[in-house]
């Protein structure tokens, strides 16, 4: 069988016998990847594809690092699985390591399977701890594909499941409305936006709200940055009313933004942190809910009524510990800062060539480029929650990017720029050259 035949068979069997997420199955056209290394994927046709979104903003240390493979193999040769009521050396080591990199008194780890199971268990724990039932999230946020995660987020992918939503999930609009009002200074806009949050707290009953959940830095909604002082103000409101603050660091955690966690850019310490993705660099599925000592103390004498069969799975924990060590050994968080600044510089240099380029919002290596249909009005090539014909231009751009040898996340009017933290200047130049070529499509249609 030739490689071409192998590729066709893989795609055919995958489509015939498995389901692909977030897609109409008939329109799925997956890349068949044979191997991956560093910032590159390699398909069965021998094409080298630069991964400019780290998979789903998750393969932070790059692909194919044998140091992680070795750690996984070594762990499997000693203990591949024990029930969560047992413990292992790797559980002790990783838990301690996470307590060291987390600020404040966030010292207790509850291991989960993925990001959205971390969110679900954070919701459960917040309700158990406070005795309250409501959770406040944001419309422009994504917290995973479970019923709980979809309900507390506002990403439109949840709309098909509206009838199944978890009850008592409340949503906030983002503060940008206030910051777009004319002739108002930053402090006034900030005050108005926090007044709005406090009004929602009172409308919903402060005695009913268990927690608020915010991404440490916004991701798939368009990397919408919080105004300076906003998260700090929200955290103060939580403290005022006895509401827990949950930081969703599934995407923005583990160096992605140039710090261990996105919330560290905002001078706050949450009560809980939800982790996944970069925790193992997606080499194996693993999530973690990091909990403050204050919350954990309640369950010293009260049973902790949450649990998973694969809680603290030793093989996944071994991958996580080795990945965290690689962040430190290879100075990847510092590299995210440096390469993020380099990307911002190169994006600005590209503006003279591309009238359809809009804002570029970036923090470390979590970036999103707006692509415009109308320069004067700032209208994007596709609106929020676009579908059908509204996606014509963005689909053409996405197809061109793929044709030119790049994998990245293109959504509505956004092109995401979130490569592995290992990336260098030469690889950035290669990736941005592909995006530059694809932008000629929108440039030719600019109004």
What's the quick description here?
The chain is of the alpha/beta class and 447 residues long. Helix content is 39%, strand content 17%. Helix 8 runs parallel beside helix 9, helix 12 packs parallel to helix 14 and helix 13 packs antiparallel against helix 14.
List the keywords:
447 residues; alpha/beta; Aspartate Aminotransferase, domain 1; Aspartate Aminotransferase, domain 2; 5-stranded antiparallel β-sheet; 39% helix
Q: Can you walk through the features of this model?
A:
With 447 residues, the protein is of the alpha/beta class. It folds into two domains: 31-61 and 331-443, Aspartate Aminotransferase, domain 1 (Alpha-Beta Complex), CATH 3.90.1150.10; 66-329, Type I PLP-dependent aspartate aminotransferase-like (Major domain) (Aspartate Aminotransferase, domain 2, 3-Layer(aba) Sandwich), CATH 3.40.640.10. It has 14 helices and 16 strands. The strands form three sheets. Strands 4-10-9-8-7-5-6 form a seven-stranded mixed sheet, sandwiched between helices. Strands 11, 12, 13, 15 and 16 form a five-stranded antiparallel sheet that branches. The mean pLDDT is 96.
